[in-house]
Amino acid sequence: MKKLLLSVCLGSSLMFSPVVFAQDASVQSVKQLITDTGAADMGTMVLEQLIGQLKQMGATDAQIAEVKKEFNVDQLIDLLVPVYQKEFTEADVKAFLEFYQSPAGKKMIEKQPVIMQESMMIGQQWGMGVAQKIQTILEK
């Protein structure tokens, strides 16, 4: 009887004890991750390229100023935060931050634009080759 009572008490205490869930990543830590990885800088680089193209097309300074006002990188970051929060816990984000603040992580951030650019060129060439092969198959 004592064993049964002890089992019931122990079982109910476990059942009603607060459940520990993985803590959602905080807005601050996600924004820090986006900043540390250079993702925010990529948005700024896109804006600079866009402005260069607009100038070549004859856009006025007033038009460019209006485009800059609309192209708000901070607003984009705010929209991205929930995506990160949905996929990662606070512990995940802290681990990522730790990595990206390490020498290896900093090197990864530094080399990422070059890797992406080269990967895009390789992907385009590969895609064109595959497209030609597909077209040949379809013409049979």
| Share in β-strands | under 5%
How is the biggest beta sheet arranged?
none
Structural class: mainly alpha
Low-confidence stretches: 1-21
Q: Please, what is the average pLDDT? A: 84
Helix content: over 70%
Radius of gyration over alpha carbons?
Answer: 26 Å
Overall number of strands? 0
Number of helices: 7
Order of helices and strands: HHHHHHH
Overall form: extended
Terminal Cα span: 81 Å
Protein architecture, described:
This protein has 140 residues and is mostly helical. The protein has a domain at 25-115. It has 7 helices and no strands. It has helices spanning 2-16, 27-36, 39-56, 61-70, 73-87, 90-100, 103-139. α2 (27-36) runs parallel beside α6. It is extended and about 55 Å long. It starts with a helix and ends with a helix. The model is unreliable at 1-21 (pLDDT under 50).
Features:
mainly alpha, disordered N terminus, 7 helices, 140 residues
What is the secondary structure topology, with strand pairs?
Blueprint: H1 2-16, H2 27-36, H3 39-56, H4 61-70, H5 73-87, H6 90-100, H7 103-139
Helix pairs in contact: 2-5, 2-6
Signal peptide: 1-22
Pfam families: DUF2059 (PF09832)
Protein name: DUF2059 domain-containing protein
